[in-house]
Specification:
The structure is a single chain. This protein is an alpha+beta fold and 108 residues long. It has one domain: Alpha-Beta Plaits. It contains 3 helices and 4 strands. A 4-stranded antiparallel β-sheet has the order 2-3-1-4. A hairpin with a 6-residue loop joins strand 2 and strand 3. Helix 1 packs antiparallel against helix 3.
Length: 108
Amino acid sequence: MVTTKIGTPFAFARWEVGPGNEAAFIETWDTFARWTAAHQPGAIMGVLLQDTENRRHFVSTGPWEKPEQLAEWRKTPEFREAFARFRELCTAIEPQDMECVAVREHSV
């Protein structure tokens, strides 16, 4: 179970995928997320969400242990290569660095 606390840095992006590129985008994102998990210290997890009405719209997010680790990840050649591929598949990409400012966990 992942526990998030106030101040946790997050990678966040909105993606608008070109028509017919949805499956290729999901595969590319998953491959890059697997590489990140295996090779980038501080990467906790990644989540990719797809809009249920506009299937070309995605949001991805993932917490990191430290903001410096997130910044270093963005400097890697693998990051640049992945984003070059994402640019081929997408009509719009909006990456952002975010910080957790509130958490409310619900018991099941």
